[in-house]
Amino acid sequence: MEKTPDDQVHEVLEPAEQQTILFYDKPLIVVRLPHGEPGAVLRYFCDNLGLAQNRQIDRIKRKKALAAGLHYARIETAGGPQVLAVLTLRVVPGWLFGIDTSRVKPELQPEIERRPGQNALTFSINGPRRRA
Description:
- By secondary structure, the protein is of the alpha+beta class.
- The chain is built from six helices and eight strands; from the N terminus they run ββββββαααββααα.
- Strands 3-7-8-6-5-4 form a six-stranded mixed β-sheet. A two-stranded antiparallel sheet has the order 1-2.
- The protein starts with a strand and ends in an 11-residue tail after the last helix.
């Protein structure tokens, strides 16, 4: 247990695998958590969509079904390891469906409205590769 970016104490997981994929032509870090479940780093989702991560974490925590898929993991980044929020693949579509598209970057609004979650799910086909 350690303090996480939301200033609360949570268990911090060590991903078994990590890779970077493209989500709407922007990098998205995806991981396989120790219990085998795939997930995506929320910060990159939010940055790519132009959403405030802290508000999305608050929204996720208010919904029991989404909150069950919120974990914190030590992620390797260009700046070194960081503890970041990870959303498991099984709750990503529910989270995306709940986004107020008027808050998304204008150029992505039609895409999100047309097929929310579809691109987020593509990494599950092959799963993240093993970290070196």
